[in-house]
Specification:
Largest interface: A-B, 36 and 47 residues
Number of strands of chain A: 0
Shape of chain B: globular
Number of domains of chain B: 2
CATH superfamily of the largest domain in chain A: MetI-like
Number of domains of chain A: 2
Strand content of chain A: under 5%
CATH topology of the largest domain in chain A: MetI-like fold
Shape of chain A: flat
Number of helices of chain B: 19
Distance between the termini of chain B: 31 Å
Helix content of chain B: 40-55%
Number of strands of chain B: 12
Radius of gyration of chain B: 21 Å
CATH superfamily of the largest domain in chain B: Periplasmic binding protein-like II
Strand content of chain B: 5-15%
CATH architecture of the largest domain in chain B: 3-Layer(aba) Sandwich
Largest sheet of chain A: none
Oligomer: heterodimer
CATH class of the largest domain in chain B: Alpha Beta
Radius of gyration of chain A: 26 Å
Largest sheet of chain B: 10 strands, mixed
CATH architecture of the largest domain in chain A: Orthogonal Bundle
Distance between the termini of chain A: 10 Å
Order of helices and strands of chain A: HHHHHHHHHHHHH
Number of helices of chain A: 13
CATH class of the largest domain in chain A: Mainly Alpha
Helix content of chain A: over 70%
């Protein structure tokens, strides 16, 4: 928003300096611009304020009360709820689970995504079919994915039988019932669902790399590995940074799959910050406490998003895209 | 009846619940309209599928025929969405006239909204016909809800699997149950199925051990004061730990749902993959939906029921049952006496027989309809409820909602081997301090 205002101001200044006589025209134009701004931005800003900013403010306010969701907000407890949430080992464990998922995404999903994208970027028979197949899980709703994997991972279910048939019966686990394993099982399901999106994103990035660079490198005698290492990957940088951003934010907000598949259990072994918030807000009817958890989740996500934009994405958005995006 | 329990976790519904909550309660309209004396009662209920939905619709039609000025606007709401939606509606200005009620601490939590009608003046002449259970739907001597069915929890078991393991009669004491578990395991039969994913089935075990370890007076005062500080609650926790040490449950029980799908605990018993399950009286209606109907018809006589066994040396009364019920409340904006009168209509013997025989709701709230119970096992339950001096409502509903869910979570942690008896007591008392 400030960017836009700056841009408008910058546009106005030379006009004022060069043509002091055209005052009425300028006023008309600026009024027209104002109307345009109101008409074009107004609805979106109203919705944004009403459905994003206001609820955040209200949640922060609710968080100051001990409130069951019924009756007036009368039991003011200050920052007590916020302190309780931050001190609760279950919340800390949930935050840690989010961080583990984020780190695993970086370490495992990203390299796999890049590798598959590089493969799919070659001209080959059935290439578009493979692209579609890779992307398909992302199109399925998370609820469907959750139910599908619940069935696959049932004790004695498809996954267990498959492992046994392959002579790997010793690897069979209580995939969703063992507190030491369940989080990693969830990560596999999350990967299955979301890796296609990353691959498509990276493919789009790859298509944007000019072919001439590869041709030139080929003429200079660069090996395929050297071309990938020194041309493709650096030019894919902006896309990778965007992927990391989306993936980290997604990791902080994991909920649907976890809630349907495990309800955060057993013994909170797969709980996430959002499942924690839903449990206390809607399940236990501790709306004040749940709101406090929601606000803390928001602050964590926002801080990450802000810092990442500031330090990692800035060089991509500066120049390459319009300034207003920053 | 599966919809009768609070924490049945078809969790896909959580998202729907949020969406519904966001949409608010524009659907409700308060009754008392129009000068001609015609009124429309808006009724929100979790009965969103047949047979119960059909029975309710039939009863509304009948009532309208005999009271032409009263018509209904019935809003069926999926069970898991219901709690969120009614919370928003009661906090708003336009709650439904009649709404589904779970009683106990759940109702007490709702009472804070100030929107629950005190029904005492309208029902005092007949409420005693429902027996002692109706008292559980009072707060400070005022009737805020009327149950239309009663529930009690006990062991559902398969007689065929017991026979295969050489067990001749159901266990009456805990040592007998434990020796039966050994016999079933020796016969390669899973002794007990439990739906730990949903947490509340775990709590049945803790609740029942507490009911056996605590005297009736202690139980009543624990509910009233929202406290688990009596040592019997600690003892109940160590009883659960000792019972868990027998490894009575199916493999991977920590992620088994209670009522959803063939792999659920109800499904395992229904399909003969486990011999027992500690569940509510509604369990057969859940099981029936999880196996082919031909198999269910063939197996139905193999399904039996026995009460939670006595714990030798425990001071509690061994005939006390754990239970609850389903009912309805009126909101303060509902037109009276029409709303209370309709709730009374749901209690008539003919309505109750229809609910029991056609909708399989469990035990009727009105004992006059008991003859409509069809399964032999249901008659066993009925006999147990007649003998009991006291029915303890499930603690998770008897206590305020946040305390109940803290209890369920703590017991679930114990089932996962991550909580001690002291942890359960602390969780209850800490949540109670938030009240």
């Amino acid at each position: 928003m400030t960017e836009l205002r700056d841009a408008t101001a910058a546009a106005e200044q030379p006009a004022a300096a060069v043509a002091p006589l055209s005052q009425p025209a300028r006023r008309r134009r600026s009024r027209r611009e104002l109307v345009e701004l109101v008409v074009l931005l107004g609805p979106a800003l109203t919705l944004f304020a009403g459905f994003v900013l206001l609820p955040i403010g209200i949640a922060a306010y609710y968080g100051l009360f001990n409130w069951s969701g019924y009756g007036p907000l009368s039991d003011f407890t200050g920052l007590h709820n916020y302190r309780l949430v931050l001190a609760d080992p279950v919340f800390r464990a949930s935050l840690w689970h989010n961080v583990i998922i984020a780190l695993l995404s970086l370490i495992i999903q990203l390299p796999i995504s890049i590798a598959i994208a590089l493969l799919l970027n070659r001209r080959m028979r059935g290439g578009s079919f493979l692209r579609m197949a890779v992307f398909a899980p992302y199109v399925v709703s998370q609820a469907t994915t959750a139910v599908l994997w619940l069935l696959l991972l049932e004790p004695g279910g498809f996954v267990d039988e498959l492992l046994k048939a392959a002579g790997l019966g010793g690897l069979v686990q209580d995939w969703l019932a063992d507190p030491t394993i369940v989080l990693y099982t969830m990560f596999v399901v999350l990967t299955w669902q979301f890796i296609g999106f990353g691959i498509i994103l990276l493919l789009a990035g790859l298509q944007g790399i000019p072919r001439e660079l590869h041709e030139a490198a080929g003429i200079d005698g660069a090996s395929a590995w050297a071309t990938t290492r020194h041309i493709t990957l650096p030019l894919l940088g902006p896309t990778i940074r965007i992927w990391i951003f989306l993936s980290m934010i997604g990791s902080l907000q994991v909920f649907d799959l976890v809630w349907i598949m495990t309800l955060g259990g057993p013994a909170d072994a797969s709980s996430t910050m959002v499942s924690y918030m839903i449990f206390f807000g809607f399940h236990s009817l501790e709306f004040g406490y749940g709101s406090a958890a929601a606000v803390i989740l928001f602050v964590i996500s926002f801080a990450f998003a802000f810092l990442y934009q500031r330090f990692a994405l800035r060089r991509d958005t500066e120049g390459a895209l319009t300034r207003a995006v920053r | 009846m599966r919809s009768s329990r609070k924490y049945v976790a078809v969790a896909a519904a959580a998202a729907a619940a949020l969406a519904l909550a966001a949409c608010g309660s524009s659907g409700s309209s308060s009754g008392g309209n129009s000068a001609s004396g015609k009124i429309t009662l808006t009724w929100w209920s979790n009965a969103n599928a047949n047979p119960l939905l059909g029975v309710f619709q039939k009863l509304m039609k009948e009532y309208h025929a005999s009271h032409p000025k009263v018509s209904f606007s019935y809003v069926p709401i999926q069970n898991e969405s219901y709690d969120t939606k009614i919370q928003v509606a009661l906090q708003g200005d336009n709650p439904p006239d009649i709404f589904f009620q779970r009683g106990g601490g759940y109702m007490a939590t709702q009472l804070k909204s100030g929107k629950l009608e005190n029904l005492t003046p309208y029902v005092s002449s007949w409420i005693s016909e429902l027996g002692a259970e109706a008292a559980a739907w009072q707060i400070n001597g005022r009737q805020y809800g009327i149950p239309y069915d009663l529930h009690s929890v006990g062991f559902w078991y398969r007689k065929d699997l017991f026979a295969r393991a050489g067990i001749t009669s159901p266990p009456a004491t805990m040592p007998e149950l434990e020796s039966d578990i050994v016999k079933l395991k020796a016969a390669h039969i899973v002794p007990i199925a439990v739906g730990s994913k949903d947490q509340w089935p775990d709590a049945f075990y803790y609740d029942y051990f507490a009911v056996r370890e605590c005297s009736i007076a202690t139980l009543k005062s624990a509910i009233k004061t929202v406290s688990a500080s009596n040592p019997c609650f600690l003892k109940a926790g160590s009883d659960v730990t000792a019972f868990m040490a027998k490894n009575p449950f199916q493999p991977a029980f920590l992620n088994t749902p209670a009522q959803v799908g063939a792999g659920s605990s109800a499904g395992l018993v229904a399909s003969g993959k486990a011999a027992m399950e500690l569940q509510g009286d509604w369990d057969p209606s859940v099981m029936e939906a999880l196996v082919p109907s031909s198999q269910w018809k063939a197996d139905i006589n193999d399904i039996g029921w026995f009460p939670f066994p006595a714990v030798p040396g425990a001071p509690g009364n061994s005939q006390v049952l754990l239970g609850g019920g389903d009912g309805n409340s009126c909101s303060t904006s509902a037109p009276e006496p029409a709303c209370a009168d309709f709730l009374e209509y749901l209690e008539t013997a003919s309505s109750q027989k229809l609910l029991v025989a056609t909708a399989n709701v469990g035990l009727p709230a009105n004992p006059a309809a008991s003859s409509a119970l069809t399964l032999p096992a249901e008659q066993t339950i009925l006999a147990a409820t007649k003998q009991t001096p006291y029915i303890q409502e499930y603690f998770d509903l008897a206590w305020p909602t946040n305390v109940g869910s803290a209890l369920d979570a703590a017991v679930a942690n114990m089932f996962a081997g991550k909580a001690t008896p002291q942890d359960i007591v602390s969780a209850i008392n800490q949540a109670a301090a938030q009240q």
